[in-house]
Design goal:
Number of strands: 9
Structural class: alpha+beta
Strand order of the largest sheet: 1-7-2-5-8-9
Mean pLDDT: 89
Oligomer: single chain
Number of helices: 11
Strand content: 15-25%
CATH architecture of the largest domain: Sandwich
Order of helices and strands: EEEEEEEHHEHHEHHHHHHH
CATH class of the largest domain: Mainly Beta
CATH superfamily of the largest domain: Regulatory protein AraC
Low-confidence stretches: none
Number of domains: 2
């Protein structure tokens, strides 16, 4: 579902603050960035891309353009859920402006938001009063404060990326390394086949041991974890968009053992492939086929 939001081309951003007792909006997408603050909704369910999880009593997520997202009542029993949603145009910050040295952290955060970013609790607690106060500001002061909030979020610690990159078709992330980019391109093009560490180390013109160390430093993940994440991203999309059986999907995404696929999927997504498919269907998503 594509949401049409009341943000006019002449506005920098729009902000909604509301208190409610349940979530009733289906899974949806829109062109704009969205910063969503939620309080008192413990055990509600969050879906961002192919990420599904129950939330805590404080929540702050930045969602990039065209990334499907939604919050659902699930097991939440609170009657005074407080939600503040800030939506702003993707061109609020000009691309040339974002590439200036002083904007590098915001630029990086916007790139990451294409997968959805969950901010840490200490960050949320520090930013919460300013987000609440922002609902009372107007004009130029409100724009300056939004930019300041975004900057402080961009330099915060322990932000968590939610959706797998292959699910949201991200192919523009910069690793500041041509070697890593060549390896990632190879993995994305051959995820459905057997890929060994020796193969990718050869592409990077490095020994296996040196490449493993180098890859972890540059990406923050091991080669095997990255390969599995890419395969799971493709598998998640197929679970949503096709009626293929789970076994078919596992083999089409490079998993040669269905038990291994189920185990890795549940560990990464906190649900089985079957539960994942059912959750998306219940959230308003319908298979294309």
């Amino acid at each position: 579902m594509r949401e049409i939001i009341p943000l006019t081309p002449n506005d920098c951003f729009t902000i909604f603050s509301r208190v409610k007792n349940h979530f009733d909006f289906p899974l949806h997408t829109h062109e704009e960035f969205e910063l969503n603050f939620i309080a008192n909704a413990k055990n509600a369910k969050r879906i961002i891309g192919d990420h599904i999880s129950e939330i805590d009593d404080l929540e702050l997520v930045l969602v990039g353009p065209n990334l499907q997202h939604g919050w659902f009542t699930n097991k939440c029993i609170c009657s005074n859920i407080h939600e503040i949603t800030i939506q702003f145009h993707r061109d609020l910050f000009d691309d040339k402006f974002l590439r200036r040295n002083q904007m590098s952290f915001i630029h990086s955060m916007f790139e990451k938001s294409m997968r959805g970013i969950l901010f840490s609790r200490p960050t949320i607690e520090a930013i919460k009063p300013r987000i609440i106060e922002l609902t009372k500001k107007h004009g130029f002061d409100s724009v300056l404060e939004l930019m300041s909030i975004l900057h402080d979020l961009s330099i915060s610690r322990n932000m968590k990326l939610l959706s797998d990159s292959s699910f949201v078709n991200i192919d523009t992330l910069s690793y500041n390394s041509r070697r890593i980019e060549k390896v990632m391109e190879y993995i994305n093009n051959h995820f459905d086949k057997t890929i060994s560490l020796a193969e990718v180390a050869k592409i990077a013109a490095m020994s296996e041991v040196a490449f493993s160390r180098f890859f972890k430093v540059r990406t923050g993940n091991t080669f095997i974890d990255t390969l599995n994440d890419i395969r799971l991203g493709h598998a998640s999309r197929m679970l949503i968009e096709t009626t293929n059986s789970i076994t078919e999907i596992a083999y089409k995404c490079g998993f040669n053992n269905i038990s291994n696929f189920n185990r890795i999927f549940k560990k990464r997504k906190n649900c089985t492939p079957k539960e994942f498919r059912e959750t998306y269907t219940e959230s308003g998503v319908r298979n294309f086929i």
